[in-house]
Amino acid sequence: MHLIDGGLSTELERLGARIEGELWTGRTLLTEPKLVERAHRNFVEAGAEIIISSSYQLSRKGFREIGLSDGDADRALLDSTAIARAATSGSLCKVAASVGPYGAVLHDGSEYRGDYKVSQSELEDFHSARLEVILQSGPDLLAVETIPNVLEAKALAKVLMSVKLPYWFSFTAPSPVKLWSGEYIEDALAEVAGLPSLIAVGLNCVDPEIVLDGVNLINSVTGLPTVAYPNCGGVWDAARDAWVGGNRKSLVQWLDLWKDSPIEYLGGCCGTDAVEIEKLNQALHSENDE
Q1: Which of 52, 163, 244, 280 shows a CA-CA span of 20 to 30 A to 230?
Q2: How do residues 190-218 score in pLDDT, each as one tens digit?
Q3: What is the pTM of this model?
Q4: 67: buried, middle or exposed (CB in 10 Å: 19+, 13-18, 0-12)?
Protein backbone atom coordinates (compact mmCIF):
# COMPACT_ATOMS: atom_id res chain seq x y z
CA MET A 1 0.00 0.00 0.00
CA HIS A 2 1.03 3.58 -0.67
CA LEU A 3 0.44 5.86 2.30
CA ILE A 4 -1.53 9.08 1.80
CA ASP A 5 -1.63 11.88 4.37
CA GLY A 6 -4.51 12.63 6.75
CA GLY A 7 -6.95 15.49 7.16
CA LEU A 8 -5.19 18.79 6.54
CA SER A 9 -7.78 20.71 8.56
CA THR A 10 -7.31 18.28 11.46
CA GLU A 11 -3.54 18.72 11.47
CA LEU A 12 -3.86 22.49 11.16
CA GLU A 13 -6.18 22.54 14.16
CA ARG A 14 -3.64 20.45 16.09
CA LEU A 15 -1.12 23.18 15.28
CA GLY A 16 -3.43 25.88 16.62
CA ALA A 17 -5.19 27.13 13.48
CA ARG A 18 -8.87 28.05 13.49
CA ILE A 19 -10.53 26.33 10.55
CA GLU A 20 -13.73 28.14 9.73
CA GLY A 21 -15.49 30.27 7.13
CA GLU A 22 -16.23 29.78 3.46
CA LEU A 23 -12.66 28.95 2.41
CA TRP A 24 -11.98 26.42 5.19
CA THR A 25 -8.27 25.44 5.01
CA GLY A 26 -7.99 27.86 2.08
CA ARG A 27 -8.30 30.75 4.53
CA THR A 28 -5.25 29.50 6.42
CA LEU A 29 -3.42 29.25 3.10
CA LEU A 30 -4.07 32.97 2.55
CA THR A 31 -3.30 34.15 6.08
CA GLU A 32 -0.72 31.66 7.40
CA PRO A 33 0.92 29.86 4.48
CA LYS A 34 3.87 28.77 6.61
CA LEU A 35 1.49 26.97 8.96
CA VAL A 36 0.00 25.09 6.01
CA GLU A 37 3.51 24.14 4.92
CA ARG A 38 4.28 22.94 8.47
CA ALA A 39 1.13 20.80 8.51
CA HIS A 40 2.05 19.24 5.16
CA ARG A 41 5.60 18.70 6.39
CA ASN A 42 4.33 16.91 9.48
CA PHE A 43 2.60 14.38 7.26
CA VAL A 44 5.76 13.94 5.18
CA GLU A 45 7.80 13.34 8.32
CA ALA A 46 5.13 10.90 9.52
CA GLY A 47 5.81 8.76 6.46
CA ALA A 48 3.20 9.83 3.93
CA GLU A 49 4.19 9.04 0.35
CA ILE A 50 1.57 11.39 -1.07
CA ILE A 51 0.26 14.64 0.41
CA ILE A 52 -2.87 16.37 -0.85
CA SER A 53 -2.79 20.12 -1.46
CA SER A 54 -5.03 22.69 0.23
CA SER A 55 -6.97 23.48 -2.96
CA TYR A 56 -10.11 21.52 -1.96
CA GLN A 57 -12.25 24.59 -1.31
CA LEU A 58 -10.53 27.12 -3.57
CA SER A 59 -12.36 28.45 -6.62
CA ARG A 60 -13.13 31.66 -8.48
CA LYS A 61 -16.79 31.34 -7.51
CA GLY A 62 -15.97 31.01 -3.83
CA PHE A 63 -13.52 33.91 -3.87
CA ARG A 64 -15.99 36.22 -5.63
CA GLU A 65 -18.58 35.50 -2.95
CA ILE A 66 -16.29 36.85 -0.22
CA GLY A 67 -15.18 39.90 -2.21
CA LEU A 68 -11.95 38.57 -3.72
CA SER A 69 -11.09 38.33 -7.41
CA ASP A 70 -10.65 35.53 -9.93
CA GLY A 71 -6.96 36.41 -9.96
CA ASP A 72 -6.80 35.97 -6.19
CA ALA A 73 -8.37 32.53 -6.56
CA ASP A 74 -5.96 31.48 -9.29
CA ARG A 75 -2.95 32.63 -7.28
CA ALA A 76 -4.21 30.68 -4.27
CA LEU A 77 -4.57 27.53 -6.39
CA LEU A 78 -1.02 27.94 -7.67
CA ASP A 79 0.25 28.61 -4.15
CA SER A 80 -1.49 25.53 -2.75
CA THR A 81 0.66 23.26 -4.89
CA ALA A 82 3.83 25.33 -4.38
CA ILE A 83 3.47 25.19 -0.59
CA ALA A 84 2.83 21.45 -0.63
CA ARG A 85 5.85 21.03 -2.89
CA ALA A 86 8.04 23.03 -0.49
CA ALA A 87 6.94 20.74 2.34
CA THR A 88 8.18 17.68 0.45
CA SER A 89 11.67 19.12 -0.08
CA GLY A 90 14.35 16.49 0.53
CA SER A 91 11.89 13.61 0.37
CA LEU A 92 10.38 11.34 -2.27
CA CYS A 93 6.86 12.34 -1.25
CA LYS A 94 4.56 13.30 -4.13
CA VAL A 95 2.03 16.13 -4.29
CA ALA A 96 -1.55 15.40 -5.27
CA ALA A 97 -3.54 18.54 -6.07
CA SER A 98 -7.00 18.34 -4.53
CA VAL A 99 -9.87 18.62 -6.99
CA GLY A 100 -12.75 18.93 -4.56
CA PRO A 101 -16.46 18.84 -5.39
CA TYR A 102 -18.63 21.77 -6.37
CA GLY A 103 -20.49 21.29 -3.10
CA ALA A 104 -17.41 22.23 -1.08
CA VAL A 105 -17.52 25.74 -2.53
CA LEU A 106 -21.10 26.19 -1.29
CA HIS A 107 -19.89 25.60 2.28
CA ASP A 108 -23.23 24.20 3.39
CA GLY A 109 -22.46 20.49 3.53
CA SER A 110 -23.76 19.89 0.00
CA GLU A 111 -21.03 17.35 -0.68
CA TYR A 112 -22.61 15.23 2.06
CA ARG A 113 -26.04 15.45 0.45
CA GLY A 114 -25.25 15.50 -3.25
CA ASP A 115 -28.26 17.69 -3.96
CA TYR A 116 -26.69 20.29 -6.23
CA LYS A 117 -29.03 22.67 -8.03
CA VAL A 118 -26.79 23.06 -11.07
CA SER A 119 -26.63 21.54 -14.55
CA GLN A 120 -23.96 19.26 -15.95
CA SER A 121 -22.69 22.03 -18.21
CA GLU A 122 -22.32 24.37 -15.22
CA LEU A 123 -20.33 21.71 -13.39
CA GLU A 124 -18.15 21.18 -16.45
CA ASP A 125 -17.43 24.92 -16.68
CA PHE A 126 -16.63 25.10 -12.96
CA HIS A 127 -14.21 22.18 -12.99
CA SER A 128 -12.65 23.02 -16.34
CA ALA A 129 -11.63 26.54 -15.28
CA ARG A 130 -10.31 25.30 -11.96
CA LEU A 131 -8.41 22.36 -13.43
CA GLU A 132 -6.71 24.57 -15.99
CA VAL A 133 -5.04 26.52 -13.19
CA ILE A 134 -4.33 23.48 -11.02
CA LEU A 135 -2.55 21.75 -13.89
CA GLN A 136 -0.41 24.85 -14.42
CA SER A 137 0.74 24.56 -10.79
CA GLY A 138 2.67 21.38 -11.57
CA PRO A 139 1.45 18.69 -9.15
CA ASP A 140 2.56 15.08 -9.52
CA LEU A 141 -1.01 13.81 -9.68
CA LEU A 142 -4.59 14.85 -8.95
CA ALA A 143 -6.85 13.77 -6.11
CA VAL A 144 -10.35 14.08 -7.55
CA GLU A 145 -12.17 13.63 -4.28
CA THR A 146 -15.35 13.68 -2.22
CA ILE A 147 -17.71 13.35 -5.21
CA PRO A 148 -21.27 12.66 -3.96
CA ASN A 149 -23.43 12.18 -7.05
CA VAL A 150 -23.55 10.78 -10.59
CA LEU A 151 -24.01 14.17 -12.26
CA GLU A 152 -20.70 15.50 -10.99
CA ALA A 153 -18.95 12.24 -11.87
CA LYS A 154 -20.30 12.60 -15.41
CA ALA A 155 -19.20 16.24 -15.65
CA LEU A 156 -15.72 15.51 -14.30
CA ALA A 157 -15.31 12.53 -16.61
CA LYS A 158 -15.85 14.81 -19.57
CA VAL A 159 -13.38 17.40 -18.28
CA LEU A 160 -10.76 14.79 -17.32
CA MET A 161 -10.89 12.93 -20.61
CA SER A 162 -8.03 15.00 -22.05
CA VAL A 163 -5.96 15.24 -18.84
CA LYS A 164 -2.67 13.37 -19.12
CA LEU A 165 -1.56 13.73 -15.50
CA PRO A 166 -2.40 10.63 -13.41
CA TYR A 167 -5.27 10.96 -10.97
CA TRP A 168 -7.48 8.98 -8.65
CA PHE A 169 -11.21 9.47 -8.38
CA SER A 170 -12.89 9.02 -5.00
CA PHE A 171 -16.51 9.20 -3.97
CA THR A 172 -18.11 10.01 -0.64
CA ALA A 173 -21.06 7.95 0.48
CA PRO A 174 -23.05 6.76 3.51
CA SER A 175 -23.05 3.11 2.41
CA PRO A 176 -20.95 0.74 0.29
CA VAL A 177 -23.48 0.81 -2.55
CA LYS A 178 -25.12 4.24 -2.60
CA LEU A 179 -23.79 7.79 -2.84
CA TRP A 180 -25.06 10.61 -0.64
CA SER A 181 -27.38 11.57 -3.49
CA GLY A 182 -29.13 8.19 -3.12
CA GLU A 183 -27.83 7.04 -6.50
CA TYR A 184 -25.96 3.78 -6.90
CA ILE A 185 -22.17 3.93 -6.82
CA GLU A 186 -22.12 1.51 -9.75
CA ASP A 187 -23.89 4.12 -11.90
CA ALA A 188 -21.20 6.66 -11.04
CA LEU A 189 -18.44 4.12 -11.73
CA ALA A 190 -19.87 3.61 -15.21
CA GLU A 191 -19.16 7.29 -15.90
CA VAL A 192 -15.48 7.22 -14.90
CA ALA A 193 -14.29 3.69 -15.70
CA GLY A 194 -11.98 3.71 -18.69
CA LEU A 195 -10.71 7.27 -18.34
CA PRO A 196 -7.19 7.28 -19.81
CA SER A 197 -5.17 8.66 -16.88
CA LEU A 198 -7.19 7.12 -14.06
CA ILE A 199 -4.92 5.14 -11.71
CA ALA A 200 -7.36 4.25 -8.91
CA VAL A 201 -10.96 4.68 -7.80
CA GLY A 202 -12.25 4.64 -4.27
CA LEU A 203 -13.82 6.36 -1.29
CA ASN A 204 -12.86 9.25 0.94
CA CYS A 205 -14.44 11.09 3.86
CA VAL A 206 -16.58 8.03 4.60
CA ASP A 207 -17.17 5.98 7.73
CA PRO A 208 -14.45 3.30 8.01
CA GLU A 209 -17.24 0.76 8.47
CA ILE A 210 -18.14 0.91 4.77
CA VAL A 211 -14.63 0.90 3.32
CA LEU A 212 -14.06 -2.82 2.80
CA ASP A 213 -17.37 -3.56 1.09
CA GLY A 214 -17.10 -0.33 -0.87
CA VAL A 215 -13.62 -0.90 -2.29
CA ASN A 216 -14.44 -4.52 -3.11
CA LEU A 217 -17.46 -3.36 -5.11
CA ILE A 218 -15.44 -0.64 -6.86
CA ASN A 219 -12.64 -3.03 -7.75
CA SER A 220 -15.07 -5.65 -9.05
CA VAL A 221 -16.67 -3.09 -11.39
CA THR A 222 -13.58 -1.19 -12.58
CA GLY A 223 -10.77 -3.75 -12.22
CA LEU A 224 -8.59 -0.90 -10.93
CA PRO A 225 -6.65 -0.51 -7.69
CA THR A 226 -8.61 1.34 -5.05
CA VAL A 227 -7.97 4.35 -2.85
CA ALA A 228 -9.42 4.84 0.63
CA TYR A 229 -9.03 7.65 3.11
CA PRO A 230 -11.95 7.54 5.52
CA ASN A 231 -12.89 9.95 8.27
CA CYS A 232 -13.77 9.05 11.85
CA GLY A 233 -17.42 8.40 11.09
CA GLY A 234 -20.34 10.54 12.18
CA VAL A 235 -22.42 13.14 10.36
CA TRP A 236 -21.30 16.55 9.10
CA ASP A 237 -23.09 19.44 10.85
CA ALA A 238 -22.77 22.41 8.49
CA ALA A 239 -24.08 24.85 11.12
CA ARG A 240 -21.32 23.88 13.54
CA ASP A 241 -18.63 23.18 10.89
CA ALA A 242 -17.95 19.90 12.66
CA TRP A 243 -18.45 16.13 12.58
CA VAL A 244 -20.99 14.88 15.08
CA GLY A 245 -20.93 11.33 16.45
CA GLY A 246 -18.77 8.66 14.88
CA ASN A 247 -16.17 6.42 16.47
CA ARG A 248 -12.61 6.99 17.53
CA LYS A 249 -11.29 3.61 16.44
CA SER A 250 -7.88 4.31 14.91
CA LEU A 251 -7.02 3.52 11.31
CA VAL A 252 -4.40 1.06 12.54
CA GLN A 253 -7.17 -0.97 14.16
CA TRP A 254 -8.82 -1.34 10.74
CA LEU A 255 -5.65 -2.43 8.98
CA ASP A 256 -6.06 -6.17 9.52
CA LEU A 257 -9.43 -5.96 7.81
CA TRP A 258 -8.08 -3.94 4.88
CA LYS A 259 -4.65 -5.49 4.27
CA ASP A 260 -5.88 -8.14 1.83
CA SER A 261 -8.30 -5.79 0.06
CA PRO A 262 -7.69 -4.07 -3.31
CA ILE A 263 -6.67 -0.85 -1.51
CA GLU A 264 -3.41 0.41 -3.01
CA TYR A 265 -3.58 3.98 -1.67
CA LEU A 266 -4.52 4.37 2.01
CA GLY A 267 -4.74 7.38 4.29
CA GLY A 268 -7.15 9.34 6.44
CA CYS A 269 -9.52 12.24 6.03
CA CYS A 270 -11.27 14.40 8.65
CA GLY A 271 -10.16 13.50 12.16
CA THR A 272 -6.81 12.03 11.12
CA ASP A 273 -3.71 14.00 12.10
CA ALA A 274 0.00 13.38 11.47
CA VAL A 275 0.33 11.37 14.69
CA GLU A 276 -2.23 8.90 13.38
CA ILE A 277 -0.52 8.72 9.97
CA GLU A 278 2.79 7.97 11.68
CA LYS A 279 1.17 5.06 13.55
CA LEU A 280 -0.33 3.80 10.30
CA ASN A 281 3.08 4.05 8.62
CA GLN A 282 4.69 2.02 11.39
CA ALA A 283 1.96 -0.62 11.15
CA LEU A 284 2.32 -0.86 7.36
CA HIS A 285 6.09 -1.28 7.65
CA SER A 286 5.59 -3.91 10.31
CA GLU A 287 3.29 -5.80 7.91
CA ASN A 288 5.87 -5.58 5.15
CA ASP A 289 8.64 -6.90 7.41
CA GLU A 290 6.70 -10.03 8.30
Answers
A1: 163
A2: 999 999 999 999 999 999 999 999 999 99
A3: 0.92
A4: exposed
